[in-house]
Amino acid sequence: MATGGMAIAVALTPTVNITAPNENKSDAKKAISAKIFSEIKSPSSLSSFKVSDIQTPDWHSTLQSSKKLNSEMKKEVTYTISTKGNVRSNLSEFSKLVNETLNDNRGWARMGIVFKEVKEGGSFNLVLSQAELMSSFSSGCDADWSCRVGSSVIINDNRWSGATTAWNKAGGDIRNYRHMVINHEVGHWLGHGHLNCSGANNPAAVMQQQSIDLQGCAFNPWPLDSELWSTTLGIEL
To answer: Rounded to an integer, what is the distance from CA 7 to the centroid of its chain?
Structure first.
């Protein structure tokens, strides 16, 4: 091309492609793969591969140890169930509700006890008795209340069926009364005596005579934390 009468020469430099052909790339990849594969197949190479040890977290070990300890510490206590005289309540239902109460995690079971009903030879005997026959167990028992005599825990059928005036006036329901009377009388077998109300509106101790008088406390069918001990079983606070 000429501009102003002067000729300018433009040199064109050829482009050089330095990229290897595709077939060379493929051959290189195959060679590398073959080398790696041969090294992995070699037993001597495999020996150099080590899997890191998996460490059990401390919290997991502690949890498992705690579960095992709790399982080993559980104490089984057996009991029998029977009736005396003419009772209105259904014995099968009584048995079921007693088991539920004794093994409830709000009750004496919190001491690590598992209560189990057996046909004979139990540690204590739970008797559902006709009210008029309560005094036949001891002169300290009467037709109005439930009681405990030695290894016999006697539940008054009238109380089981209808609770008491004091309990009903305080707004207590029949199921919680049954929880309470079982826990209270079994509490005597465990070694507890009677307690009084600790203060107005406080939950009553299960060993308070709630059937007779709440003394200003709120009705409570379950043992308090302070009641979780047993001289009979050698369990201390």
So the answer is: 102
